[in-house]
Design a protein that fits this description.
CATH class of the largest domain: Alpha Beta
CATH superfamily of the largest domain: P-loop containing nucleotide triphosphate hydrolases
Number of domains: 3
CATH topology of the largest domain: Rossmann fold
Number of strands: 12
Number of helices: 19
Strand content: 5-15%
């Protein structure tokens, strides 16, 4: 880790308070080059690690923070004002989007140690990204196997594909996989987030002479968050797709040869009914669709993915591979994973850094090791079904690489174990 941490270190401090500003000289003395920006300016900044004072308005309108962090490709630490009343969803928001959080006023030595760990993990994250992100399609659950079959079928096609899935579920990875499987693999893959910029800037960046549509010619254009594309640009996009031409404001017409892939968090039909999405564009995009199952419904894949991430970070750091404690495995199975695979990767990075030479504990992952909250009362059959499901999940968490042993631990035959896995859609 020391070798990784020898590079110059740039720190971005976003929306600082007076106490945060008073820390700057001490951080600079510790070797950090610190710049300070507000949230709107931060998108254009360059830095290695991000530090954000998490205000109440960030939580009521979290899109700006999520956009900044997801586009940064690095680790972020939250500085949280002490609050008298608990804020619903605060722990989940921090766990999904931040490497860690500290309460204000900050203990400076603790912050410096945390920044150092985050910097090392950010470097590992960059190395991991250069290796590719195929890990997000790892898994033996039925939904993952079905998804891989659909990818093999749709990859060679020239038709559009609408990719539906929750935040962090790997929609862009699926789009890149479709591109790699297509005859356009030698052409460009161009990605554009439709919900990031105001409409005038969106129009210029998407349809300009050097815009995304023109840049994708001969390859694949991936329109992320297509449901957020300004309504004024939806018809223009549909015209381009139908005519296979791009008409510029100066009258120049450019022939287009692109395959369009798009993603959305939810079905587009309701937006069409509300008048917020063009029905013709929805029909065009919806010729083929892929649905990505959220991680919480793929319990059998959680331990496999977590182990992959832990091994990756250990390998890149040149350290002995880390393993998860019994409590950590149980906590991962019981967690709801609102941020899906992206959240899992973030929590394992954090846990790997905090655990150092020992096993990764639930607390290192930012998860509670307490038992899962009790479900609503139901019939005896409901309780039996939930108990059976949880037993299978726990067995998969511990023995996902050896299903015969998992069956033996549960005291059932291997055929019975497989039957139960299929019954609960865990395999």
């Amino acid at each position: 880790m020391e070798a990784i941490s020898s590079a110059p270190r740039r720190l971005l401090l976003v929306d600082p308070c007076d106490h945060c500003r008073r820390m700057l000289p001490r951080l600079e003395e510790a070797g950090w080059s610190v710049s300070s920006q507000n949230l709107d300016q931060a998108l254009a900044a360059t830095y290695d690690i991000g530090l954000l004072r998490l205000r109440s308005d960030h939580l009521t309108r979290p899109e700006g923070v999520k956009n900044l962090i997801s586009r940064s490709g690095t680790e972020w630490i939250a500085l949280v004002d002490p609050l008298g009343e608990p804020v619903p969803g605060l722990d989940e928001f921090i766990g999904e989007w931040f490497f860690d959080a500290l309460a204000l006023p900050v203990d400076l030595p603790r912050l410096q140690g945390l920044l150092g760990r985050a910097f090392g993990i950010a470097r590992l994250r960059g190395i991991g990204n250069r290796r590719g992100d195929q890990h997000e399609l790892l898994g033996q659950s039925r939904p993952l196997r079905d998804l891989r079959k659909q990818l093999a079928r749709l990859g060679p096609s020239e038709k559009p594909v609408l990719i539906l899935g929750e935040s962090g579920s790997g929609k862009e990875l699926v789009a890149r996989t479709l591109h790699r499987m297509s005859r356009r693999v030698a052409g460009p893959f161009v990605s554009f987030n439709c919900g990031v910029l105001p409409e005038p800037e969106t129009a210029s960046l998407l349809f300009g002479h050097q815009g995304k549509v023109a840049s994708a010619n001969g390859g694949t254009l991936f329109l992320d968050a297509i449901h957020e594309l300004p309504t004024g640009q939806q018809e223009r996009l549909l015209t381009c797709l139908r005519s296979r031409t791009l008409r510029h404001a100066d009258g120049e017409v450019m022939p287009l040869d692109i395959r369009v892939l798009a993603s959305a968090r939810e079905e587009l039909g309701e937006l069409v009914e509300q008048g917020h999405f063009h029905p013709g564009l929805r029909q065009w995009l919806d010729q083929n669709r892929l649905m990505i199952t959220p991680l919480r419904k793929r319990q059998g894949d959680i331990a496999l993915l977590a182990g992959y991430f832990a091994d990756l970070y250990s390998l890149e750091a040149g350290r002995r591979p880390s393993h998860f404690s019994e409590e950590a495995l149980a906590a991962m199975v019981r967690h709801r994973w609102p941020g899906n695979v992206r959240e899992l990767a973030s929590r394992v990075r954090r846990g790997y850094a905090l655990a150092e030479s020992g096993p990764i504990e639930a607390a290192d992952l930012g998860l509670q090791s307490a038992p899962m909250d009790g479900a609503l009362l139901g019939t005896l059959e409901d309780y039996k079904r939930r108990a059976e499901y949880q037993a299978l999940c726990d067995a998969l968490a511990h023995y996902s690489s050896n299903l015969s042993h998992a069956a033996k631990v549960l005291g059932v035959s291997r055929p019975t174990f497989y039957r139960l896995l299929h019954k609960h859609q865990l395999l």
